[in-house]
Amino acid sequence: MIVVVIFNIVQAFVAGYALWRGGAPERSVSLLLLVASLSTWLVPARHLSYHHIFWPVLWIDLALLLGLAGITAFADRFWPMWITACQLVTVAGHGVRAYDPELWAMAYWFITGSIAYPMLVILVVGTWRHHRRLPSGVEFAWTAQRHCHDRLTTQAEPPS
Question: Can you give the pTM of this predicted structure?
Answer without folding.
Answer: 0.85
